[in-house]
Amino acid sequence: MLKTALSIIESIKEFYPAIFYLLKTGNYQELQIVQNAFSLKRERRGSILIYSKDIKSLKSLFTKYPNLYSERRFAAVDSLVVDFFKENMANFSYIEECSLFIPAKYIDLNSNIINNNILKQPPEGSKLRELVIDDAILVNRYWPFANGEETEGYIRDQIKAFGGYLYEYNSKPVCWALRHDDGSLGFLHTLEEYRKLGFAENITKCLMNKVENLGEIPFGYVVKNNIASEALLLKSGFKNLKKVFWISLNDK
């Protein structure tokens, strides 16, 4: 089943980097596949990711695996899946549109942003270091989706698994970022008084370099109308590839 899913997604992995990452690393559970569609659940966060080539395959997936109807959280799904839910379940408690960003060089062979991962000179008094486990408290405090000890534990695990970066300015932590369990870049935050000094751009490029050194594709998601984050990724050599959606469903 894993080989079949990988064979389906391999040639289009740039468009489904989270699914490809989870399949390659094994950080998933409940892989379910039929025809040209499959679903899997993120091992830590619990949300469902779905790939389907067409609506026929998607309908077949839900017919063969009716347990999917009882799931309530879906992540980074295409509009095809959203339309299917509207026709069949139509009881959203939450839906948020985001954009998938990956480096332009992976999707545009004529891109003039081929090597845009060189760091800028940071302000004097700055120090870039890797995240340590105890930094999870700080990251969790500023993460908009934090939920106390639960998400702090999640962040600790992500620092252990991959690491991340933090800028200090005059020994004060001012900017940081790491990676989610689906492989996406995230948790980026710069204290307000230290923005527009190049910290976030440098840390984004550091993460990008680290991911590429592992032979993987860097990618991230930006919530609709988050102009600052979009601008940062574009400046760092990324390209807006497509729209995806995060969905929560109410009980029928």
Named at the architecture level, the CATH assignment of the largest domain is: 3-Layer(aba) Sandwich
User: Helix tally?
Assistant: 8
Question: Order of strands in the sheet with the most strands?
Answer: 4-11-5-10
Number of domains: 2
- Identify low-pLDDT runs: none
Structural class: alpha+beta
Overall shape: it is globular
Look at the structure and give the mean pLDDT.
92
Break the fold down into its secondary structure elements and pairings.
Blueprint lengths: L1 H8 L7 H9 L2 E7 L2 E6 L5 E5 L2 H10 L8 E5 L1 H10 L3 E12 L22 E5 L5 H7 L6 H13 L2 E6 L2 E8 L5 E6 L8 H15 L6 E4 L3 H9 L2 E12 L3
Helix pairs in contact: 1-2, 5-6
Written account of the structure:
The chain starts with a helix and ends with a strand. Helix 5 (136-142) crosses helix 6 (149-161). The chain folds into two domains: 2-100 and 245-249; 117-236, Gcn5-related N-acetyltransferase (GNAT) (Aminopeptidase, 3-Layer(aba) Sandwich). A four-stranded antiparallel beta sheet has the order 4-11-5-10. The chain has a four-stranded antiparallel beta sheet with strand order 6-7-8-9, covered by helices on one side. The chain has a three-stranded antiparallel beta sheet with strand order 1-2-3, sandwiched between helices. With 252 residues, it is of the alpha+beta class. 32% of the residues lie in helices and 30% in strands.
In short:
The protein is an alpha+beta fold and 252 residues long.
